[in-house]
Structure formats: structure tokens, C-alpha cells
Amino acid sequence: MTYTAPVKDIAFVLNHVVGLADIAKLSGFEDASPDLVDAILDESARFTSDVLAPLNWIGDQQGSQWVAGEVKTPEGWKEAYSQFTENGWGSLSFSPEFGGQGLPMSVSAAVQEMWHSANMSFGLCPLLTQGAVDAIEHHASDELKQRYLPKMVEGSWSGTMNLTEPQAGSDLAAVRTRAEPAGEHYRISGQKIYITYGEHDLTENIIHLVLARLPDAPAGVKGISLFIVPKFLINEDGSIGERNDVNCVSIEHKLGIHASPTCVMSYGDNGGAIGYLVGKEHQGLVYMFTMMNQARHAVGVEGYGIAERAYQKAVAYSRDRKQGKTLLGKSEEDQGIINHPDVRRILMTMRSTIEAMRGLGLECAAAFDQARRHPDETVKARMQRRGELLTPLVKGWSTEMGVELCSLGVQVHGGMGFIEETGAAQFLRDARIAPIYEGTTAIQANDLIGRKTARDGGQGMSELMSDMQETLAALNKHDHLDMKAIAKRLKPAIESAQSATEWLLGQNDATLPSATSVEYLMMQGRLAGGWMIARSALAALRLKNSEGADTAYLDAKITLARYYAERMLPLVESAHTIVIDSAETTIALDTAQL
After folding, report:
1. How many CB atoms lie within 10 A of CB 536?
2. Where are the alpha helices (DSSP H) in 218-340?
3. In degrees, to the nearest 5, what angle opens at C-alpha 76 toward C-alphas 73 and 78?
4. Position 587 in a domain
5. What is the C-alpha separation between 573 and 567, in angstroms, rounded?
6. What pLDDT score was predicted for residue 169?
7. Coil, strand, or helix at residue 532?
8. What residue numbers bound the domain in which 206 lies?
9. Is residue 220 part of a domain?
10. Is residue 66 part of a domain?
């Protein structure tokens, strides 16, 4: 069983939930017409289903291979990447000034889901390139932009993010890579680890963004600068020049994403790699956050993208697999395990949670679209707060749930799910990196409780809760059994989240909130997902009255929303107790007692 992109579900969220039509009215986004977006989604579905998905198993089995400093990607990878760049898939949301198509982030995020569902290992290469493009576009000089961005947007050059060192994982204050001034450029020396696609054979050049310290840099994170360090230097005429002093000394052997080379990079083994300062000295971490925040959202999309693939495989298997007499099967022929009630539970959990995550991911992207283009400065500021607030939820909650749902996909297969040949295990192995990438779930949670909630006195969170209350009021206006059932569970969930936030804001320091910050993030993620799927139900109910409505499809949307509300939103209420009552006991034991 291969992959079929859920175009109808994605288009439903874009068109009827997050307001793509309103986004298309904003200056600069006028090309995002319904017809064009439909065509993009359909063509992306064809490419990802026909080209990328068949390579997923091949990539897992062959992996990328490191030989004497060179990395060879699996069979079919180069040909697929050539088609990817020829069709402009990596350039959707970038500025036309550098060859991009200038489309909204929400459209780009919709397409990215398909990449990661079809072939997560492949999708990681353009994911990192997009983050590098964002960082360069926002912070580099005009000269550097003109030199690097056109080829990176085109996709003929890829990009990487070089933060981590052996002694500096999440603690970037410990970065030791050095940058020595050398005329108009710098000489970079040091080692970076866990560099995704740091070396490969897909593009003619690789543009590394590297965090390093200047000789006079102050200690800590305030002493880090950001540099562009190309694999090959660029001649004055824009052509590829000589090889820079940058080498991949090994690649990691990993649990999953075998086809995505995770590299150990060495800079300056022969005198220093030539690098170019991005922006101002000692501002590198601020600049890198531009890339990291884009990547965090993209990794969240990975979370529900890989879960969608696991769901499709699980539901197909459950239709065919017969085991025991079912309680729901209506005939002797209709005895697939899909008709066992508990298998239905698993599939409903997977499907409804994916729809909630997809809605949240696209809502976050739509907020950034509004923040970027809306003419009203007040609206822009509010939407910027919204996008920034939702980013750790998209990244943290969606990736954690992605792992859980991929595990449920294995469970549907029973013992066969534990056998590699069925393919179900690969999705679980691949998904496991996502809660770690671009900052672990705890890092996202501390970002949520600190920079995104406490720093502004809860303003962004209060605005979000206010919008949820509007959705609750809309549900209660309908004399419809399912809307009433959704509202019944959404109301106490909102109240629980508000109470937990008040407790958080009332603490004198971050110690206790940090002890239960991940549970707080998961609580807010589940609630935000419930808010989105409730809006989906309202949209489906509205559309049922339109001419030619697909009532079976729309009824399924409403049922999924009610299931999510009744199964998942009670977890928000229980999380309120966990966040507040378990904080002290979480840190009560001394380390010697653990």
C-alpha cells in the first residue's frame, strides 16, 4: 500500500476553516486563488504519491552511504530531487525577488505535509533549505542575499543549520567553533554534529549556516555570531569555485530516517573554512531563531504528516485482515478487523487527531500570513503573537502525537506490525526523531510558558482563549445534537486551560511551572486541536446546506469532531490537575534518591 495525499481534507481546512480566501485578498498574495491552490494541491499529490512515496521503503533499506567524505543518497533520490526542483516545489512561499512564487505560508505548509507523509527522509532536505533561506533573507546583507538566495530558492543549492557540537547540544552557550577575521571574510574552525543533509549528492552546492565565536566574543549566548559557509566557494561571476575547507567526517547510524544523512561536519582542518558574517557580530542566536522557528513549524507538520501515512496503512490493513468474528461486521464477508470496536477506537483516534493537528498547523501558518501582509498594524501584531504562540504547540504536541499515532498504527497490525516487511514499523522509527528535532518537547514547553505566555502577561494566550470562547458560542447557537455534544466538552476544557494559565502566571519563578511544562503544552495542544476540529464541524454543518454537498463526507467531519471532543478534551481537564498538583512532587527527590 502506497500513499494517497488527502487533498480533499487539506483543501477543506484551507478553504473553510482557516480562511484562505481572506488571505488571498492581502497585498502580495493575490495569486493564491482557489483554482491555483487546487491545482497546486492536485499536482503535489501526484508528485508525492507517484515519485516520493515509492522511494520511502527503498531509502529506509539502503540508507545514505558515507565513503571517504562523500555521501551517496539511495537509489532514485537524485532523479526525484531533480523533478522536485524542476517543478518548483521548494520555492512556493519565497519572495519573487529571488525566484520564489510568493504564495502564502499556509499553502506551502499544506504541500509540505505531503512531502513528509510520502517520504520524511526526502522532505528533510528542502525543509532545512527553507529555514536557511528565511534566515538569510531576513538578516544577511543585500550582497549575500543576491549571491546565495536565487540558487537556494531554485533548489540547485541546499542549506543546513549548524548549531550543535559534542559539548553543546541544547546549551548553545557552550559553542566553541571559532571565527577569525581574515579581510572581507572569516576563517571558521571547529566541529558540528547532527547536521541534517550536511553532505549529499543532490545539489551542486551546500550552503551551511554556522554558529561560531569571534576572538573578542563575550561568554554565553550573547557571544555567538552567524556565518554563511558554502561547501564550494562562489566566483565573482556566480559560478562554482574551489572546494571550501569543509568536510563531512562521518554520518550517524540511526533508529530511523536512514536515507537522510545526519553528518559530523569538520570546519577548518586545513587553515580555516571561509565564511561570511550574517548581519551583526554576536547576534547569531537571534538570527538563527528565524531559521529555527520556521523549522519548528515544519517539524510539527512532519509530526502529523507521518501520522497520516501510518493511518492510511493501518486502515487499509484493517479492511483486509480477518481475525475472529467481529461485532460490527454485517455479513460473513464483512469480517475485517476494522469491524472490531477497539480497532475502530484506534482508527478514530488516529483520524480525528490528525485532523486536529492539521487544522492547528495550517491555522498557525495562516496567522503568520496575516502578520506578514495585513494592512492593519494592530491585526498584524495580534497575528504575530498568535503564530508565535501556536508554534511550540504545533511542534511539541504534533510531534509527540505523531509518535503515539504511529505506534497505534503498529498496534492495528498486531504482530505483523512488529515485522519490518509490513512497513508499519518504519513510520514509528522515522517519527521518533521529530519530538527531538529543533528543540525537544521540554524546550518547546519552556518556550511556551516563558517567552510565549509569561513574558507578555498572558496576552497572547488570553486572545487565543477569547477566540475559543467565540467558537464555543457558535456551537451553542445550533440546536444540533453533535454541536451541543462538542460544546459540552469544549467549555470545561477551556476553563481548565485558563485556570492552569492563571496558576502559571501567579508563580514567582519558573521552577514549578517548568516541572509540569510539558503537560501544560500537551494540554494546550489538545485544546487548540479541539478548537480547530470544532471549527471544522461548524464549517461542515454550514456546508451541508449548500447545493451538491457531499453529505457523507461532511457528516464524517462532524462525527470525527464529536469523537475528538468526547475522547480527547477530557484529557485537558485532567491535565489541569497534573499541571498544578504534581509540580512539587516532580522535583521532590534528591538526585541520589532517583
Report:
1. 26
2. 284-320
3. 60
4. yes
5. 12
6. 76
7. helix
8. 158-286
9. yes
10. no
**Grid cell listed for 335:** 469480517
Predicted local confidence at residue 1, as pLDDT: 58
3-state secondary structure 69-133: CEEECCCCHHHHHHHHHHCCHHHCCCCHHHCCCCCCHHHHHHHHHHHHHHHHHHHHHHHHHHHHH
Question: Are the beta carbons of 506 and 513 closer than 8 angstroms?
Answer: no
- 363/365 Cα distance (integer angstroms): 5
The arithmetic mean of pLDDT across residues 431-453, rounded, is: 96
Q: How many distinct structural domains can be found in the chain?
A: 2
Owner of C-alpha cell 454543518: 541
pTM score, whole prediction: 0.97
Alpha helices in 249-283 (DSSP H): none
Question: Which residues are marked as active site?
Answer: 438
- Give 212-238 pLDDT, tens digit per residue: 999 999 998 889 999 999 999 999 999
User: CA neighbours within 13 Å on the CB side: how many for 455?
Assistant: 10
Please provide residue 144's backbone torsions phi and psi, each rounded to the nearest 5 degrees: -65, -40
Q: Can you tell me whether residue 509 is helix, strand or coil?
A: coil
Dihedral, 424, 430, 435, 439 alpha carbons, nearest 10 = 180
d(C-alpha 177, C-alpha 155), whole Å: 28
Q: Which residues 6+ apart lie within 8 Å of 499 measured at CB?
A: 576, 580
CA 193 remoteness from chain centre:
21
* Rounded mean pLDDT, 362-381: 97
- The rounded distance, in Å, linking the Cα atoms of 306 and 350 is 11
Which residues lie below 8 Å from residue 35, measured CB to CB, with a gap of 6+? none
Band (293; pLDDT cuts 50, 70, 90) = confident
At 114, the pLDDT band (50, 70, 90 cuts) reads very high
Boundary residue ending a domain (261, 286, 311) = 286
| Residue 229 backbone class (left: φ over 0; alpha: ψ -120 to 50; beta: rest) | beta
Report the Cα 444 to chain-centroid distance in Å. Answer: 12
Confidence at 246, pLDDT banded by 50, 70, 90:
very high
What is the predicted pLDDT for the residue at 402? 98
Taking residues 59-73, report their average pLDDT. 97
For 221, half-sphere exposure in the C-beta direction (CA atoms, 13 angstrom radius) is 11
Could you tell me the maximum CA-CA distance found in the chain, to the nearest angstrom? 80
| Residue 408 counted as domain residue | no
Cell readout for 270 is 586545513
The residue among 7, 12, 105 whose CA lies nearest residue 535 is 12
Specify the CATH number for the domain of residue 177.
Answer: 2.40.110.20
**Cell triple for residue 378?**
494592530
**Cα separation of 364 and 133, whole Å?**
20
Do the Cβ atoms of 232 and 207 come closer than 8 Å? no
Q: In the listed set 267, 286, 305, which residue is the last one of a domain according to the structure?
A: 286
Nearest Cα to Cα of residue 12 among 110, 122, 150: 110
- Per residue in 414-427, pLDDT (tens digit) is 999 999 999 999 99
Rounded to an integer, what distance in angstroms lies between the CA atom of residue 468 and that of residue 323?
43
| CB 497, CB 574: distance < 8 Å | no
Handedness of CA 362, 453, 395, 266 (dihedral sign): positive
Q: Which residues have C-beta within 8 Å of that of residue 277, sequence separation ≥ 6?
A: 179, 186, 225, 226, 227
